[in-house]
């Protein structure tokens, strides 16, 4: 998606060999106009799949996911990383190991919000090692729902997440695909 690539070139900062900082439009400050366009793009890519629900993980997946859900006219559910007072005890959970933070998060979805047979679209901000998407896949399976695909805002093709999802036969659509970081610059995949 040209618009997103341009925004990454303009505002992204490369940290070390493998991290892109995009906190002025996606990971901290959020650009709602851009998120609406990303959401619309996801909706167009998956509309034919008759999605019932959009699922993401807090926090940075929420903005693109809610706009995709708005466009598809379905609810958006975000997996929580922390138990909250309002969360019931009847949950689906999965462990997600973060390579970036070197810690394991439990992601949690209340059973009331994911039903057997529902056609679910996963959305996330980054696809790096694929752990977050894998955790969401486990939850969809536990709910006997049907995973239709995964929409990713920024995929880093040089990390192992994409291969993992391809092996699992998941339909993945990424709006920007980064092949490498070279001399502090982003190199996009074709
Ligand atoms: P994975 O989900 O693909 O397995 O990725 P990984 O464990 O490597 O990443 C852990 C966290 O770091 C995730 O966010 C992921 O979205 C984010 N991340 C991965 N690569 C990059 C990157 O190049 N740049 C940025 N900015 N983030 C990256 P999280 O911990 O769930 O954070 P948040 O959603 O609460 O913001």
Automatic annotation (TrEMBL):
<dbReference type="InterPro" id="IPR050118">
    <property type="entry name" value="Pur/Pyrimidine_PRTase"/>
</dbReference>
<dbReference type="InterPro" id="IPR000836">
    <property type="entry name" value="PRTase_dom"/>
</dbReference>
<dbReference type="GO" id="GO:0032265">
    <property type="term" value="P:XMP salvage"/>
</dbReference>
<dbReference type="GO" id="GO:0000310">
    <property type="term" value="F:xanthine phosphoribosyltransferase activity"/>
</dbReference>
<feature type="binding site">
    <location>
        <begin position="128"/>
        <end position="132"/>
    </location>
    <ligand>
        <name>5-phospho-alpha-D-ribose 1-diphosphate</name>
    </ligand>
</feature>
<dbReference type="InterPro" id="IPR029057">
    <property type="entry name" value="PRTase-like"/>
</dbReference>
<dbReference type="Pfam" id="PF00156">
    <property type="entry name" value="Pribosyltran"/>
</dbReference>
<protein>
    <recommendedName>
        <fullName>Xanthine phosphoribosyltransferase</fullName>
        <ecNumber>2.4.2.22</ecNumber>
    </recommendedName>
</protein>
<dbReference type="GO" id="GO:0006166">
    <property type="term" value="P:purine ribonucleoside salvage"/>
</dbReference>
<comment type="function">
    <text>Converts the preformed base xanthine, a product of nucleic acid breakdown, to xanthosine 5'-monophosphate (XMP), so it can be reused for RNA or DNA synthesis.</text>
</comment>
<dbReference type="InterPro" id="IPR010079">
    <property type="entry name" value="Xanthine_PRibTrfase"/>
</dbReference>
<dbReference type="GO" id="GO:0005737">
    <property type="term" value="C:cytoplasm"/>
</dbReference>
<feature type="binding site">
    <location>
        <position position="20"/>
    </location>
    <ligand>
        <name>xanthine</name>
    </ligand>
</feature>
<comment type="pathway">
    <text>Purine metabolism; XMP biosynthesis via salvage pathway; XMP from xanthine: step 1/1.</text>
</comment>
<comment type="similarity">
    <text>Belongs to the purine/pyrimidine phosphoribosyltransferase family. Xpt subfamily.</text>
</comment>
<dbReference type="GO" id="GO:0046110">
    <property type="term" value="P:xanthine metabolic process"/>
</dbReference>
<keyword id="KW-0660">Purine salvage</keyword>
<feature type="binding site">
    <location>
        <position position="156"/>
    </location>
    <ligand>
        <name>xanthine</name>
    </ligand>
</feature>
<comment type="subunit">
    <text>Homodimer.</text>
</comment>
<feature type="domain" description="Phosphoribosyltransferase">
    <location>
        <begin position="33"/>
        <end position="156"/>
    </location>
</feature>
<keyword id="KW-0328">Glycosyltransferase</keyword>
<feature type="binding site">
    <location>
        <position position="27"/>
    </location>
    <ligand>
        <name>xanthine</name>
    </ligand>
</feature>
<keyword id="KW-0963">Cytoplasm</keyword>
<keyword id="KW-0808">Transferase</keyword>
């Amino acid at each position: 998606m040209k618009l997103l690539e341009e925004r990454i070139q303009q505002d992204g900062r490369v940290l070390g060999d493998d991290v892109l900082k995009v906190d002025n439009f996606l990971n901290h400050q959020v650009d709602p106009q851009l998120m609406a366009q990303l959401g619309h793009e996801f909706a167009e890519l998956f509309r034919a799949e008759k999605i019932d629900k959009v699922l993401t993980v807090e926090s940075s997946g929420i903005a693109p996911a809610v706009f995709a859900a708005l466009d598809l006219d379905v609810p958006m559910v975000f997996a929580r990383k922390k138990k909250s007072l309002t969360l019931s005890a009847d949950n689906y959970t999965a462990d997600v190991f973060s390579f970036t933070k070197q810690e394991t998060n439990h992601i949690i979805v209340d059973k009331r919000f994911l039903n057997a047979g529902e056609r679910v679209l996963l959305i996330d901000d980054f696809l790096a090692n694929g752990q977050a998407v894998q955790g969401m896949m486990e939850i969809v399976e536990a709910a006997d729902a049907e995973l239709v695909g995964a929409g990713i805002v920024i995929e880093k093709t040089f990390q192992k997440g994409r291969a993992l999802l391809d092996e699992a036969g998941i339909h993945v659509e990424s709006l920007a695909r980064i092949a490498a970081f070279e001399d502090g610059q982003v190199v996009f995949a074709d």
